[in-house]
Design goal:
4 strands; globular; about 70 residues
């Protein structure tokens, strides 16, 4: 089960951060930082797992517009 405090930290980062450099990409967020990005969410998540170890990973798509998609896995 996801630790909601960590998920909330990642969500807050996603909402407030300037992620324009990742527009149109998937990102993995761990402890309020982007640790991986790319076009394929599965590859982004797998890449994040290598560095995140036991930490909560939030996977999100950075839209080109005002659309918000946040997926919590864990």
């Amino acid at each position: 089960m996801a630790d909601m405090a960590k998920v909330d930290k990642n969500y807050e980062f996603y909402i407030k951060a300037d992620l324009s450099e990742y527009a149109g990409k998937w990102i993995a967020i761990v402890d309020g930082k982007v640790v991986a990005s790319g076009d394929d969410p599965e590859h982004v998540y797998m890449s994040a797992e290598k560095s995140a170890k036991d930490k909560e990973i939030s996977l999100a798509y950075v839209p080109r517009d005002e659309l918000l998609i946040l997926v919590v896995v864990g």
